[in-house]
Amino acid sequence: MPRFGRRMMVAVLGTLTLVLISCSTGENGSDQGRRPTGTHVTIRVPADAPTISAAVSLAQSGDLVLVAPGEYHESVKISTAHITLRGESRDKVVIDGRLQQANGVVLAAPGVAVENLTVQNNTQNGVLVTGSAAAVAGLPGHRGYNTGNEPVTFLKSFLVSYVTATRNGLYGIYAFSAQDGVIEHSYTSGGADSGIYVGQCKPCRIVVRDNIAELNAVGYEGTNASGDMYVVGNRLVGNRVGLTTNSDHQEKLLPQQGAVIVGNLIADNQQTPTPEQADGGWGIGVGIDGGSDNQFVRNRIAGNANAGLVITATADLPSDGNQIVDNTFAANGVDVGWKFPTATRGRGNCLRGNDLRTTVPAQLAASATCPLPADSPTPSGTWVTPKAPGGIPFTDVAAPGAQPQFPNATTTGATALPDVPALPDTASIPLPSASLLAGSARVQTS
């Protein structure tokens, strides 16, 4: 009988802790040690199972896998719904791929929460959340995964919280073909493509909130991520590009539409000690490339050497109906620039109530005031852009400092997730304070 085959569960001092015991099978084929219906337990690593993967394989719906401090050399795939994987210490529970595996943690079942740990040194992703079998198999892509003729299948309901993802070869935290989830209170750095990425969802019903992304090629990227897609209250400082929302033929569910980007600090995104961005971007706070009907509200966008916010288009996908409202721009090369290198442009893009000084074309604040008729053509201009310096390998990005811990990690039970997360009240999200710009001491401005 395998060591971790049949087992019974024992309650100790009122706290359910797993005791792994071989138990025989009766003549009728039933497990004599079968767990009572509705019983949830804590499986401790390494006390109850020697590896995280072994503990996850034992877990049933509602269980908590609680991991003690240590360095774990494994790729953890979670295929059981509604379990929680949590580290006892965010900085001291480290899943290290040693550049020998594609992903650190893969969420392939609904209702799963991953909390309070570090994932690093994976050739693709730190944490991957996906309903795509091809993505689980580790098929790489330039921006996300090219899943060929695979039908779109969504993983529904997930949480990534208090996770540090650093020095990963594609994305730090990646939600692809997933819906109804939250990425929060996490830190990403050294993402060779982006720190946080959401791709191929419509409607997404995903909230990306209160995260820090620095020293990535791109801080946050949303590709073909449409409908109830919220990026709110994040610190996207000291990357090569702060934030992009775009359409891309490599993924399904074109075009990108309807993201809401509110209350983010997007600053100083021209860092040299970072991985080179795949498209060569550098010095840009916000880039909209073939994305439409997005709202950018009360963001503080400062100190980006090329441009604070750029709207452009792919060769065949316009950027239409984007609204730039009540943002504060300062010390950017150009505050707002609209540049279309091909005949594909856009319509109905507009601005209102922003604190800004420079636009290309000039006088956009007066000539493109929201609201605009949907068929109003978007003008194009050009400006002198700084040359992007060479980057560094993602493996050489500076190690992160200590990050805030999940509260009461060792005493709180498993996290139960709703089918659909509560979506934010964006009217209550303020403009980030200018004082927050002083908190970028780790970032080397150019």
UniProtKB/TrEMBL annotation:
Bias-annotated ranges (Polar residues): 405-414
Pfam families with a match to the protein in the record: NosD
Matches recorded under Gene3D superfamilies: Single-stranded right-handed beta-helix, Pectin lyase-like (2.160.20.10)
Chain intervals for the UniProt region annotation (Disordered): 402-429
Domain Periplasmic copper-binding protein NosD beta helix as annotated: residue spans: 165-336
Keyword Endoplasmic reticulum among record annotations: no
Keywords assigned by UniProt, alphabetized: Repeat
The keyword Signal appears for this protein: no
Domain of life: Bacteria
InterPro entries recorded: NosD_dom, PbH1, Pectin_lyas_fold, Pectin_lyase_fold/virulence, SCF-Subunits/Alg-Epimerases
Protein name stated in the entry: Periplasmic copper-binding protein NosD beta helix domain-containing protein
